[in-house]
């Protein structure tokens, strides 16, 4: 009997050891699985996952954090009383600031990244009145008959995209992009909407005509009056009343195709332009950015009072963008741009950080804790200026009010006389009477 009891206790301890051993193995397996899932989750947050779709979805999350921008109409529909003419007149397009989006089709970064229709939808719904689309061709050549006009990120003459993208995810169809504009741009407000078409393909009349056919098909009912075609007038001089509910088309060069050239209202180029564009880089920002363009502030003020002026900060290529999303789409302090009256400052809308709310330290107070913008979140500061709408009137000191030209008086022959010059012999003596 004593032997049997020892055998039973030994068997019980073995069972306990097996249970503890199995629990230990289970904990180890759980830790391993959890670590793998955590790594995958972190990878998805930084790289957007393995597919283009998952990266797009993560990139678009930022737009859900935007504060709701008011979409208020223009005060008095842009009409003011001009005391010099003693009548009511419209402000010009140069007299407003416009919420402007750079590379509006990119939901994430700039370097070899994804494209999305929803990125365009998001910037329009969040109040942008100026968007930027880069135009290129599908296939190996723009000269092929079946080549399509597409929207995609072109770097050094080549279409770039996220390496995990499928062929149909590497670019957007231009016509579909314009349909989004037609559906959303005037859903809440009737203010003018600008599209900056950066033509990345080689100058070619036939391909430009393809571009024209698409634009006419979708947006012909939104075109400005023909008087403002062919860039006949400075874009800033166009009265805002003539542009309400209209689309204003701008390009980076003067089109060769006469049909496309007719509907383009503004050209931002070194020559043959009616819109002034200043381009800055991350390097030039270290030396003052737009401040380095002119010798004095007064020169820039004169420029913005009489013209529609735009500023674009070009993004730098950064291979780290694949792992650290949006590292190559950083924004900058634009307060000086508003100080001197620059109408369009193009910003990377996909790079935004919502302000953080500080917890209430005391439950007895009834005053809510104000929101504080995170440090260096220049996109938040930029949008805060447009809290009442994507198109706002400049301060009076930045607006030029037209005056009648001075009256020309006819000379009186009895009083006035003409200057007569007399040169003496050999040219040694000159006299003015």
Secondary-structure map:
Blueprint lengths: L1 H46 L4 H9 L18 E4 L4 E4 L5 E6 L15 H9 L4 E8 L11 E3 L1 E3 L2 E3 L11 E2 H11 L8 E7 L5 H15 L27 E5 L6 H6 L2 E2 L8 E5 L1 H4 L11 H10 L2 E5 L21 H5 L4 E4 L30 H7 L6 E3 L27 E3 L6 E3 L1
Parallel strand pairs: 3-14, 4-9, 9-10, 10-11, 12-13, 13-14
Antiparallel strand pairs: 1-2, 3-15, 4-5, 5-8, 6-7, 16-17
Helix pairs in contact: 3-4, 4-5
Class based on secondary structure composition and strand pairing: alpha/beta
- Any idea what the CATH architecture of the largest domain is? Alpha-Beta Barrel
| Distance linking N and C termini | 149 Å
- Report the radius of gyration as a whole number of Å: 31 Å
Estimated share of beta-strand residues: 15-25%
The total tally of domains equals 2
Can you tell me the residue ranges where pLDDT is under 50 for at least 5 consecutive residues?
Answer: 361-368
CATH fourth-tier homologous superfamily of the largest domain? Phosphatidylinositol (PI) phosphodiesterase
Number of helices: 10
Strand order within the widest beta sheet: 8-5-4-9-10-11
CATH class of the largest domain: Alpha Beta
- Describe the main β-sheet briefly: 6 strands, mixed
What sequence of helices (H) and strands (E) makes up the elements? Answer: HHEEEHEEEEEHEHEHEEHHEHEHEEE
CATH topology of the largest domain: TIM Barrel
**What is the overall shape?**
elongated
Q: Round the mean pLDDT to the nearest integer and report it.
A: 87
Helix content: 25-40%
What is the total tally of β strands? 17
């Amino acid at each position: 009997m004593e032997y049997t009891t020892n055998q039973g206790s030994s068997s019980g301890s073995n069972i306990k050891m097996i249970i503890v051993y199995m629990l230990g193995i289970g904990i180890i397996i759980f830790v391993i699985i959890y670590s793998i899932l955590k790594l995958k989750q972190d990878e998805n947050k930084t790289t957007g996952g393995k597919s283009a779709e998952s990266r797009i979805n993560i990139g678009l999350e930022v737009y859900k954090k935007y504060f709701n921008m008011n979409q208020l109409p223009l005060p008095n529909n842009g009409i003011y009383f001009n005391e010099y003419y003693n009548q009511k007149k419209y402000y010009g397009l140069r007299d407003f600031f416009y919420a402007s989006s750079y590379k509006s089709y990119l939901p994430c970064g700039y370097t070899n990244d994804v494209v999305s229709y929803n990125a365009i939808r998001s910037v329009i719904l969040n109040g942008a009145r100026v968007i930027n689309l880069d135009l290129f061709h599908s296939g190996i050549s723009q000269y092929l008959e079946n080549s399509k006009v597409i929207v995609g990120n072109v770097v050094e003459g080549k279409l770039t995209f996220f390496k995990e993208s499928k062929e149909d995810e590497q670019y957007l169809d231009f016509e579909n992009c314009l349909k989004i504009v037609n559906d959303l741009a005037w859903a809440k407000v009737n203010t003018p909407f600008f599209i900056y078409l950066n033509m990345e393909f080689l100058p070619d009349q036939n391909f430009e005509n393809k571009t024209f056919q698409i634009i006419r098909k979708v947006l012909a009912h939104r075109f400005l009056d023909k008087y403002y075609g062919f860039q006949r007038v400075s874009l800033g001089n166009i009265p805002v009343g003539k542009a309400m509910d209209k689309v204003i088309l701008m390009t980076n060069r003067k089109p060769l195709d006469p049909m496309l050239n007719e509907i383009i209202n503004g050209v931002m180029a070194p020559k043959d332009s009616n819109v002034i564009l200043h381009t800055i880089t991350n390097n030039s920002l270290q030396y003052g950015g737009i401040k380095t363009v002119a010798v004095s502030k007064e020169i820039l003020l004169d420029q913005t009072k009489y013209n529609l002026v735009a500023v674009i900060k070009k993004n730098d290529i950064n291979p780290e963008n694949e792992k650290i999303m949006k590292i190559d789409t950083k924004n900058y302090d634009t307060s000086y741009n508003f100080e001197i009256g620059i109408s369009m400052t193009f910003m990377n809308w996909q790079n935004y950080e919502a302000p953080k709310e500080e917890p209430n330290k005391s439950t007895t107070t009834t005053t809510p804790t104000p929101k504080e913008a995170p440090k260096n979140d220049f996109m938040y500061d930029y949008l805060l200026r447009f809290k009442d709408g994507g198109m706002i009137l400049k301060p009076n000191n930045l607006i030029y009010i037209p005056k009648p030209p001075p009256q020309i008086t006819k000379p009186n022959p009895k009083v006035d006389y003409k200057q007569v010059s007399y040169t003496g012999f050999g040219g040694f003596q000159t006299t003015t009477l």
